[in-house]
Predict the structure.
Amino acid sequence: MSKILIADDEKTLRDIFLRFLTLQGYEVSLAESGRDAIAKLNADFFDMLIMDLKMPGTKGAEILREMRRNKNGAAVIILTGAVDAEDSKDLKELGYDVRDILYKPVDLFELLEAVKRKLLHKV
């Protein structure tokens, strides 16, 4: 069973993803902030991180840089309403592109397909 960490400052979205992905057979943990996500990633192993790009306090790129420093090999799906020029530059420098991004509002079945695809290519 794959372990997924969902990091988003929107509680409703975290709860919906938790229920949906748990019903699909995934083990899901939640983080309500970037700092919380970094702490959980450093404390446990996750196959995947699904994260909001813009959360208060910690930018998504900071989380991705921390993952790289710690050699955390989790697959990543980035959630966002929009990508500005700075985010685009940061993501490109870190090796992420449009295939790694889902735009809000996220269709649950689109999310599920992205999760399956990313986990399949991770192995």
Q: What stands out?
A: The chain has a mean pLDDT of 92. The longest strand covers residues 75-80.
